[in-house]
From TrEMBL:
Chain ranges passing through the membrane: 714-738
Source organism of the structure: Salegentibacter maritimus
Protein name: Histidine kinase
UniProt key word S-adenosyl-L-methionine: no
Keyword Membrane: yes
UniProt entry keywords in alphabetical sequence: Kinase, Membrane, Transferase, Transmembrane, Transmembrane helix
Ranges for domain HTH luxR-type: 854-911
Pfam families per UniProt: GerE
Entry's Gene Ontology molecular function annotations: kinase activity
């Protein structure tokens, strides 16, 4: 029994916990900047903004700066905590423990600090910490809890040594709150004058003050007062007073004279409406990082909060508001519907009723819910476990055989519905309470679109599109045909809808339309501009699309397109299940993975023309050697330009991003990421870096440019160019001289060649002449020799004949005389001398050479050798020598023997060859 009671109690608490989530209101976009984002301490004691929108925060570790692109931290030289910050013109004044001064950027963009303490001279400061800084009549005032100092024209002087809590400029007077003594006016002669009629403040410690129109709003720890310059009054809102008692006021900011922003110590930010005396609270439960607001400032509709842990930015008047469930119990929202003055949410954890900023789960609806649809004033629910309807905040089953994705009315038959389920299409007739499965459609169907009264298109979650035809009663299927995607497109995540009565199919990143004449899918030319954009909603000629790449939304009537891409949406859209629901004339709801967003389209369009876009600037330009001057066109050496970093400043505004274009010798473009543009290995020359601020509708809203120059490398400098010209001229002159020399050499060679050829021709002619002459002499020698041989032969024949018949001669003496005369004629020495002379002319040094080899040769031997050299036969030699042929042969034999020749060697050839 006890165990049963315990189980009941446990179940009761479980139901209570699950059926009633923490109440939470719709909030404007809140952007969190964690300490890990800006790499500094968590506490930010004060915060201010310059004219351009650059944020400066007094951080525990120094001065923190954010220019919309990157965070920078500037520690004080002594490392002290900075307690206050105030921007005035181009200087950022800060205060810390026994220290105050200002920060300023030099000509290179580098931030440096100037302390003003030395300007006090011999004045001895007490243990003071400076919590507030303001400007009054051109002078800067620094306030600690123990004194007030004035900085004017480079001089610093103490004004009052009083305990003060706050100071403010109101109606051209500097008011100071002194402990529990109320407000005083600091006069021109540095006197403090008490403001009359402030009995209401008696005994109260002023925490903060703000000017709202003509009134001064004064805040104490748990109350608000109003001062109009004459009288003081108390805020009459008891609810606000109770809230301040619970939350503990810390700071006040007057916003557009109609609202007050109250920063508290315990409960975040109170947004108070002065006209309606109402307020809403922004705290940790709905987006802030921390409930302790140490400081805040407003710029361009953004409220920047310095928190005890981090920095937050609130788009306070954004036309987009969010409901975010930070408990995780709601989960991802897949659909949203309004029915009987209530809002219902379909999520992956169940169906919820959202009323008075509180969520309550519908009992029994736990589980994944895909869709909500109102048909004939009945709210249907497509659930993972079946199909249901909601009545009086309770869930009733329609059929639970299988889970379902969607329910639709059958075209031209309002009393019949089609349920797209996990197992196919089911026809439902609620009047007859009948439901049955349509044949031939036994696969999962996520959605259907009617082509006509008898034909529909079914979307399979994974396999794409099917086209099905039915009879007139939608009782039987006539055909089911799978539709192939053109060009082999992927079938997953295919969607179909009707645009201007045409079936439009979105497949991954392309749009097609159905051509009934060709029974095919053609490219939807009119939607080419919306490639990678899925259609979410259509209404009276206007359409909503989601960009599948960057998760932005687009609203269009195909004439004008409005881009809605708030940073807060980020990746919060439910991927592949994005959905927009309209409620009223211009109010739209977008489901998110942790809640939903509410968009006031009319206000969004109105605010577009007023959206501020700051001008981008270059705040630093560095090469590998360090920073360069920004005032004039920076010029750098080529060797230092291999790696350039351009640091940009683009304070937070309504822009969608910052792009750049580099024009010059090299052309580059891209998107600026984290405020840094890295340029590597640029060619030398003049460059212009153009910064392009993209407006809220993705157009160029602001431009700025920055020029710089990279000097040529040393080998392309002017001096080197002169050297190159000089070398070129030297080379030309050298080439000219070399060519001239070469030409002369060539000419000389030609002359030598010509001379040689000429000489060769002369020599050849001379040789030919000599050869001819030798041949002629040889012939002459041969002829004379032959003539002499014939003569001698004849004389020898006559001699022989006479010798035979000498007995017949009567005068023997005369006969003998004749024979002797013939013999002398045969052996005529003069003929030999002539022969020898002519022979030596033809065969110079013959006798000398042969005698050198064979010195024992006789003159007769030499004579025989000369005849053999002339290749004469023994028969021809015999008459020349005056001997017989036999005598010649014998002489030849003896000569061979003297020369030592063997019998096989030809004596004539030996003499011709060797001599």
């Amino acid at each position: 029994m006890k165990r049963s009671i315990l189980n009941i109690i446990t179940a009761f608490f479980f139901v209570l916990q699950y059926s009633s989530l923490i109440g939470q209101q719709l909030t404007p976009p809140i952007h969190n900047y964690l300490a890990t984002n800006y790499n500094a301490a968590s506490q930010n004691w004060d915060i201010d903004v310059d004219e351009e929108g650059v944020i400066y925060a007094a951080n525990n570790q120094g001065l923190l700066s954010y220019d919309g692109q990157s965070w920078e931290l500037f520690p004080l030289p002594n490392g002290s905590i900075i307690r206050s910050v105030f921007v005035h013109k181009d200087r950022i004044f800060t205060g810390s423990y026994k220290e105050f001064g200002y920060w300023k950027r030099d000509s290179t963009g580098k931030m440096y600090y100037t302390s003003l303490i030395p300007n006090l001279g011999d004045y001895k400061m007490q243990s003071e910490e400076f919590w507030e800084i303001l400007e009054f009549r051109g002078d800067i005032y620094f306030r600690s809890f123990g004194a007030i100092y004035r900085y004017s024209q480079d001089t610093v002087e103490p004004v009052q040594n009083v305990i003060s809590n706050k100071m403010i400029v109101y109606k051209n007077q500097l008011l100071v709150a002194l402990g529990r003594s109320g407000l005083h006016i600091l006069s021109a002669d540095n006197d403090l004058k008490n403001i009359p009629n402030q009995e209401l403040l008696q005994g109260e410690i002023v925490v903060d003050m703000a000017v709202s129109g003509q009134n001064l709003i004064i805040g104490t720890k748990d109350n608000l007062y109003k001062y109009n310059g004459d009288t003081f009054s108390t805020f009459g809102d008891s609810n606000l007073k109770d809230e301040l008692k619970r939350s503990e006021l810390n700071h006040i900011l007057a916003l557009d004279n109609k609202r007050l922003l109250l920063g508290t110590v315990k409960n975040g930010l109170i947004n108070y409406d002065l006209k309606n005396n109402s307020y809403n609270i922004l705290n940790r439960n709905n987006g802030l990082q921390n409930n302790t607001v140490l400081s805040f400032v407003e710029k361009y509709g953004n409220i920047w909060l310095g928190l005890d842990n981090g920095i937050d930015r609130i788009e306070i008047d954004s036309p987009i508001n969010f409901y975010t469930d930070d408990t995780g119990e709601l989960g991802a929202v897949y659909d949203l519907e309004f029915h009987e003055t209530k809002m219902y949410l379909a999520s992956n954890t169940g169906v919820y009723n959202f009323n008075n900023n509180k969520l309550q789960i519908i009992d029994g609806s736990e589980g994944h819910t895909w869709n909500l649809k109102i048909l004939n004033n009945t709210l249907f629910v497509n659930h993972n476990s079946g199909t249901y309807f909601i009545k009086e905040n309770s869930l009733y089953p329609v059929e639970t055989a299988t889970g379902s994705y969607k329910i639709d009315e059958i075209s031209y038959s309002a009393s019949n519905y089609l349920i797209s389920s996990y197992t196919g299409l089911r026809k439902l007739n609620p009047l007859k309470d009948s439901i049955y499965q349509l044949d031939n459609l036994d696969f999962p169907v996520r959605n259907v679109v009617f082509e006509n009264e008898n034909t529909l298109w079914a979307v399979h979650p994974y396999e794409g599109l099917y086209r099905a035809g039915f009879d007139n009663n939608f009782a039987q299927t006539n055909f089911v045909k799978k539709i192939a995607m053109p060009d082999g497109g992927n079938s997953i995540n295919t969607n179909i809808s009707k645009i201007n009565n045409q079936l439009a199919i979105f497949n991954g990143d392309r749009w097609f339309k159905y051509n009934p004449f060709k029974d095919s899918l053609d490219v939807f030319e009119e939607l080419k501009a919306f490639r990678k954009h899925k259609m979410l909603f259509k209404d009276a000629g206007s359409y909503w699309f989601s960009d599948t790449e960057n998760n932005s939304l687009k609203f269009t009537d195909f004439e004008n397109t409005i881009v809605i891409a708030p940073e807060s949406l980020g990746n919060r859209l439910v991927k592949n299940y994005e959905k927009i629901i309209k409620n009223g004339d211009s109010i739209y709801y977008v489901v998110l993975n942790d809640g939903f967003a509410r968009i006031d389209l009319k206000k969004f369009i109105k605010d577009l023309g007023q959206t501020p876009v700051s001008t981008p600037k270059v705040k630093g330009f560095l090469n590998i050697k360090g920073r360069l001057e920004l005032g004039e066109k920076p010029v750098m050496a080529y060797k230092n330009s291999r790696d350039l970093n351009v640091y940009t400043s683009f304070p937070t505004s309504g822009a969608m991003g910052l792009n750049y274009k580099l024009k010059g010798e090299d052309t580059l473009s891209g998107k600026v990421v984290n405020g840094v543009i890295n340029l590597q290995n640029l060619s030398h020359g003049d460059y212009e870096l153009e910064l392009l601020a993209m407006g809220p509708q993705a157009h160029i809203a602001k431009r700025n440019s920055f020029s710089f120059r990279i000097q040529p490398p040393w080998y392309l400098s002017n001096a080197m160019k002169v050297a190159y010209v000089f070398c070129f001229l030297v080379i030309l002159a050298s080439m000219y001289w070399f060519n001239r020399l070469k030409l002369r050499k060539h000419q000389s060679l030609l002359e030598e060649k010509f001379e040689k050829e000429h000489q060769e021709r002369i020599n050849k002619l001379e040789k030919e002449r000599l050869v001819n002459e030798i041949n002629l002499k040889r012939k002459e020698l041969a002829n004379t020799t032959m003539v002499a041989a014939k003569k001698n032969e004849m004389l020898m024949e006559i001699q022989n004949e006479l010798s035979k018949d000498k007995t017949n001669f009567s005068n023997q003496f005369k006969m003998k005389h004749i024979l002797n005369k013939i013999n002398r004629a045969i052996k005529n020495k003069d003929e030999w001398k002539v022969f020898e002379t002519n022979f030596n002319e033809l065969h110079e040094d013959f006798f000398k050479d042969i005698l050198k080899t064979y010195p024992k040769l006789t003159s007769k031997d030499l004579k025989l050798c000369s005849y053999l050299k002339m290749n004469l036969t023994s028969k021809e030699i015999a008459p020349l020598m005056g001997i017989s042929v036999r005598g010649v042969e014998v002489h030849r034999y003896r000569l061979r023997k003297k020369m030592g020749l063997n019998k096989n060697e030809n004596l004539t050839n030996f003499l011709i060859k060797n001599y």
